[in-house]
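Hi all, posting the design record for the shared folder.

TITLE: backbone redesign
STEP: 1 of 1
STRUCTURE INPUT:
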């Protein structure tokens, strides 16, 4: 079974406030994408890696071919071919760009956010293992430590109290926080994205992960343990946390 990994790294990173694409933002002196690439390569599960980068971005394209980053730390692991492609205007577009560049000989694909730069190799291996065992779709998850509420806008005559009012408290024991890499058979992911490609802007904006597209097709999505290290670097606070994790646990 041949495995492709798509790293989506074409986001603007507006919420980080650096004025450069998120995957270029330095984390302990190196671009975020460098860490994501190292984790993917160290997992040893990829036969081919495809990285979706912002259109006309040079730095990230060069990084994908930089042997000081792509050389595996473990001598037993080989670095698979890495191709960089132009990402799209939404995350889904970037996934589709990656999918079409992976080639015909790939059976299963793991889609990974560059922003989850510290995702440990073991998580890639767990996802790949579930696919090898027959899953068509698999996601890494964490349990919830916080209680979660559903809210709606407060009625007009109550907004002086607060903007929102709680309507529901879901059972926390059944909720999971979803991470990447998410793994799929190429067939399932291609089917899901063929439908998503037809979405209007509002529908596209609501697609926050690939698994939800698979669920809509009625295909079971299996959940395996993720990792606290797989935090998604989105805000300046996340960057501080990621640096602290690197200091504590290494890359
Ligand atoms: O924007 P968000 O933080 O949800 O992005 C998650 C991942 O998707 C990031 O790694 C980002 O680089 C990627 N992305 C992309 N193309 C876009 C938007 C986001 O590759 N147009």
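Okay, here is what came back for every position:
SEQUENCE:
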């Amino acid at each position: 079974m041949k495995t492709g990994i798509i790293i989506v790294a074409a986001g603007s990173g507006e919420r980080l406030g650096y004025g450069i694409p998120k995957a270029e933002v330095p984390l302990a002196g190196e671009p975020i994408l460098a860490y994501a690439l190292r984790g993917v390569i160290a997992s040893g599960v990829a036969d081919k890696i495809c990285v979706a980068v912002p259109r006309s971005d040079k730095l990230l394209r060069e990084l994908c071919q930089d042997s000081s980053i792509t050389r595996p730390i473990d001598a037993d692991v080989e670095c698979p071919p890495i191709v960089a492609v132009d990402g799209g205007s939404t995350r889904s577009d970037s996934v589709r760009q990656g999918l079409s560049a992976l080639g015909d000989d790939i059976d299963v694909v793991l889609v990974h956010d560059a922003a989850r730069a510290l995702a440990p190799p073991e998580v890639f291996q767990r996802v790949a293992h579930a696919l090898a065992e027959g899953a068509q779709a698999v996601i890494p998850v964490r349990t919830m430590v916080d209680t979660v509420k559903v809210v709606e806008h407060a009625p007009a005559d109550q907004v002086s109290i607060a903007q929102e009012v709680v309507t529901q408290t879901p059972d926390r024991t059944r909720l999971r926080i979803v991470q990447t890499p998410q793994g799929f058979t190429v067939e399932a992911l291609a089917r899901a994205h063929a439908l998503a490609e037809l979405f209007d802007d509002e529908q596209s904006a609501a697609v926050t992960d690939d698994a939800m597209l698979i669920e809509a097709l009625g295909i079971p999505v299996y959940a395996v343990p993720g990792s606290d290290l797989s935090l998604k670097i989105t805000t300046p606070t996340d960057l501080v946390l990621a640096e602290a994790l690197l200091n504590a646990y290494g890359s």
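COMMENT: The longest strand covers residues 137-143.
Let me know if anyone wants the other runs.
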